[in-house]
Protein: Amidase
Amino acid sequence: MTETDIWRLNATDLTALTRNREISAEEAVKASIDRMQQVNPALNAVVEDLSSQALDRARNLDKAVGDGEQPGPLHGVPVTIKINVDQKGHATSNGVVALKDVIAPDDAPVVSNLQKAGAIVIGRTNTPEFSFRADTDNDLHGRTHNPWGRHISPGGSSGGAGAAVMAGIGALAHGNDIGGSLRFPAAANGAVTVKPGLGRVPAWNPSQSAERGILAQSMSVQGLITRSAADLHLSMPSLIAPDPRDPFHVPMPWRGEDQTGPIKVAFTKQTFGYDLHPEVDKALDTARDALIEAGYVVEEVAPPDNFEAGRGGYRALMGEVLTLLKADIEAAGSKTIRDIFEVYFQEFPPIVGTDLIKMLAKRSHYAREWSLFMQNYPLVLSPFLPQPFFKPDRDTEGAEGVHEVLGCAVYSYAMNFIGLPAACVPARLAELPHGPQPINIQIAARRWREDMAVDAAAAIEDRVGQMCLPLWKKMGTSF
Structure:
């Protein structure tokens, strides 16, 4: 196998070779580094190149295995880490110029867990300022581009992660998600992800000087963006390993109990007044048919009020942002991000004071309604966005732009507010006027059952195929 082939391997296929010593960790890492050097100048997905230390670590892992040490489950897998999470000795800039010298004193739990499993960090990926846009651009590192073309945003806030993994820069990409920041980049780039539920993945940044707000704590989760659903089953058990620095982490196994009988899926095309684009409609039908073929029982039925929970939850988050973060945004943010936040506050009028306390209380009501519904329907298949993914900087175009980018994304942030897991997987490659573009859908799952959402994503992927293959063919003509 040549290095030209190695970078194309998914993490699952790669570890089958590295763990059996058919290829070395050094070979695996070098192939991804070569790919990064080839395509990243045009993408700007990786904004800190860690090639040298990655190769050193790969050689050390190879030596350890040669000396008889058991290889980890992710032995030799090249990964990227988002720049808003601590990696010892590197800046946790969060895309903000004023934070470019905030050097992490230690690794965050996700970095530690990935490295303990044998993964090797080859670079750190871009994020928008304060990781609070569904697009990725900032004054510190500049714009990240979507490998499908510059007419499509790469998504955000884990836009660098999504663009990197789909372009072949590493087999796994770390990201996080407070309102869709894993799923937006997955949808933009045709990748696969699962937003874990609350308490599933340990999280904490050793560099932080104060604890985050309660909604930031309860809505934000850490995860991975991959090219295949199988890679989530491979890697997530390592990511969810306990870490005492997160006192609210729940140490549960990745796989839950097997379900008796066919799994029922609630299928909805509700868009709450937003237009459902024909290509999204076709993607939903394809996903439904794939699940039926795989033995699921799919019934068209509306879940509990997603719009009310989603909008209420995001307005509450904006209330917390207004109280705890707005001063920092005003002091350290660019004019672009300051202007965007002003429109955020119009689109999602912040809930503050007594009303915020009431909305925090009502969160349990929404979560309970979903919990009861999911006793009968453990999975919910829905749109992720009602339209194909938007163009770069759409959220800078005033109220209309923010409304298209975030206003319609209630299926996204509702899951953050009530703490349920949700997978995002491509179900169609649409031929649009500007060219081919992936269309992702969402699969929400019962609490603690990320594995069921990923199983369903795998069933859809079996029918549709992995989007990296047509992407790489397209990239061959333009990169």
